[in-house]
Amino acid sequence: MVPTLPLLLLCQLALYTAVASKKDCGRPLLGDGMDGKALHMVYSPGDKVVLSCNNGYTPTGNPRTIVCSASGVWTPSKLKCLAKSCSFPQNPDHGEMVFEDITYQSTINFTCHDGYTIQGASTIECLANGEWSEPPPKCLPLHCGMPPIPAHGRIVYDGLYYGNTIVFGSGVTYECRPPFVLVGRERGTCSYNGEWTEPPKCKLVTCPPPTNITNGYMTSDVIWELGYKDTVRYGCNLHYVLDGPVEIECLKTGTWSNKPVCRAPCSIELTETHYIRNTHLTDKTPHNGIINVHCINKNAKCRYAVQSQCIDGEAHIPECLKETNDFVKTFNSTYQLEITIC
Asked: In sequence order, which residues have a C-beta less than 8 Å from that of residue 89 and are 6 or more positions away?
């Protein structure tokens, strides 16, 4: 009976060793997208766990069941959870979209170009069912109301418009009714914020009474102040020629445009001993008029034509006419035009 006790002790020791060598498994390590809500912190050897994917992920690969081994290690699994993809959205006309991915929980941010406003959600999200939370938005052009009309002014539209709104980017031209002058920008635009650019103002402008011109006259006696765009006409006395505009205008600066002047005629007094008068020469040659005279070549005993132009009462006298010509004196009693042309 003595050998029985050691054998019993040896069996108990072996059983204890076998039990003591088994280890528990901790909570399984999960990959991206796997569902871990129902998992425990500790599992005993032999326990099984069926892995699954969260909503919004698609499972792929087997096996999906893992077992806690006696060594405290979970058997391997090839399960992967792939995020579901949403369809690629269309970029809105006149807009932009910013995103990194189109898979589950990804977002896209939409913006519109200047002058356009977004219609719909500016941010959409890819949902678990593979659909977007909202349809892609649209970028619609901004509209302005009718532009303000400045007092004493009017508006010229670039085109035909219907209703009480005008689309972004459209423009108008401002004008003022005389004697008012436009102060500010002549052009107005429906801007990107749906508002019109600052309209101009119409300022009253007058000019002082105009003055007369030497050797001329105004067509009417104007002694009062005249306004912007008003006009006055001028004329010249007999034999004088108007040089410049017949009409002057009151400018937006409050001053008159340049006045004309009256240019004087020419009257040349030459003796018969100095020239032979052309039959077309008159007592008063107007400004810019041509004076035709004949000079005498006493050596050849003939005459030749010379021209001079009248410039505001002055004409150049040919040198040949400034000298006494003895040859001509001998013809004082005859018709000078009978002298032969050289």
From this structure: 97, 102, 108, 124, 132, 136
Hey, what are 47's tokens? Answer: 């326990």
49/161 Cα distance (integer angstroms)? 72
143-204 CATH choice from 3.90.1310.10, 2.10.70.10, 1.10.3720.10, 2.40.50.140 = 2.10.70.10
Q: Which of 130, 138, 78, 73 is nearest to 105 (CA)?
A: 130
Q: Which CATH number fits domain 95-141: 1.10.10.10, 2.10.70.10, 3.40.50.300, 2.40.340.10?
A: 2.10.70.10
CB 166 within 8 A of CB 144: yes
Residue 176, both tokens? 């003022």
Q: How far apart are CA 162 and CA 172, in angstroms?
A: 15
Round to whole Å and give the CA distance between 53 and 59.
6
- The model's pLDDT over 222-250, given as tens digits with 9 standing for 90+, comes to 667 788 989 999 999 999 999 999 999 99
Rg of the chain (C-alpha set): 55
Number of Cβ within a 10 Å radius of residue 270: 14
Tell me the per-residue pLDDT of 107-151, one tens digit each, with 9 for 90 and over.
Answer: 999 999 988 889 999 999 999 999 999 999 999 988 888 999 999
